[in-house]
Design goal:
The chain has 100 residues and is mainly β. The chain has one domain. The protein is 12% helix and 35% strand. It has one helix and five strands. The protein is globular, with a radius of gyration of 14 Å.
Length: 100
Amino acid sequence: MPGEIEMAFDTHTITLHEDDAGFPLNDDFDWSQPHVEAVVKHAFDNTAVGAQSNFRSFGETQIVAGNDTSRVAYVETDSGYFVVSADMMSHVIVTYSRWD
């Protein structure tokens, strides 16, 4: 678009409220692969990073066993990889890192 500034990111983080992500079946965020992919798409599809597709290599775990607030997810796409975490206020934090 005219006047639009193109930016390239090595790493970029976006925070959004889980109610804004539009999860499949209107469910609450449950850390499943479809929900993590929905968060990534919602966060980055309309940024300079671009639309995300070809999701692969999904993983999800608690960093501290038994502590649900330490839960994180990881997923890869053609443009890079994403780490997803959440805070206690229903925010989901998505960090993108490009492939080198």
